[in-house]
Amino acid sequence: xxxxxxxxxxxxxxxxxxxxxxxxxxxxxxxxxxxxxxxxxxxxxxxxxxxxxxxxxxxxxxxxxxxxxxxxxxxxxxxxxxxxxxxxxxxxxxxxxxxxxxxxxxxxxxxxxxxxxxxxxxxxxxxxxxxxxxxxxxxxxxxxxxxxxxxxxxxxxxxxxxxxxxxxxxxxxxxxxxxxxxxxxxxxxxxxxxxxxxxxxxxxxxxxxxxxxxxxxxxxxxxxxxxxxxxxxxxxxxxxxxxxxxxxxxxxxxxxxxxxxxxxxxxxxxxxxxxxxxxxxxxxxxxxxxxxxxxxxxxxxxxxxxxxxxxxxxxxxxxxxxxxxxxxxxxxxxxxxxxxxxxxxxxxxxxxxx
Length: 354
Known about the structure:
The protein has 11 helices and 13 strands. By secondary structure, the chain is of the alpha+beta class. A hairpin with a 2-residue loop joins β10 (about 280-290) and β11 (about 290-295). α6 (about 180-200) crosses α8. The chain is elongated.
């Protein structure tokens, strides 16, 4: 072999080696993936006393339309994307393992300073709004949901893909939910219970409907001072077991009024009872004749010492009240949990309903 050929071969080998090294460096520069995971926690109401389209319900041959997005309307654009993902997958979430893929919707936010923190607040706020607007979401444990961000960086430009799943958990059900079938059976139960209850008030005025549901709950529910079961806080516990705490009362009242197409909102805050003790509490605001009034069904269903009869005065002491009287012992708190925006509530009419 001639010397020139040997030199050419060595030169070609060197060029190939340089090209391979260049390609390896380019691959490293052009693309790498970082996975960031964060388990988001929501603080439940700590009860010490006593979270785009219309929902359509069929009621005794009548169709009631009710827009159920009071809290949704207060979210920013990122929070609304999270909320819409949850809402559009309500049926899928009943599986306990369904993963919601948000794609690259949040890339711009995640490229901002403290983007991860902002994303966490947006999701927590969306979850709070979703579960306050849709009170029949009683089967999901938020602490078992994992928000996962996958980041791909190309030439210094990062793209982020976000999804929500049960990643490290068997499912994201509450501990007392056994399976997807259990969820669906319980959801069917409360839907049928609502239909039975409101079928009795066809043709009633809105005021009569609001009063009927209030009275039915007072007559049939009992405040649970003992149980630690998750169901004491939710709609299923209210309609199936008839024993709940104030959050269960308030969620059930909203669920039943939603079925009647009557505008109402679940409210959280603190209240001072007759013994002067202030505690976390939940109640409702109801809109009648274009004005908002407060209803606290829990406190209208007190335990009468000695087994005495519930008087009319006590039964309606917290029914359709205006701010002048209601705020004497109730205080709104718009921060529904940590790491959330502060929500605003409807402005009550000053005087009680007449």
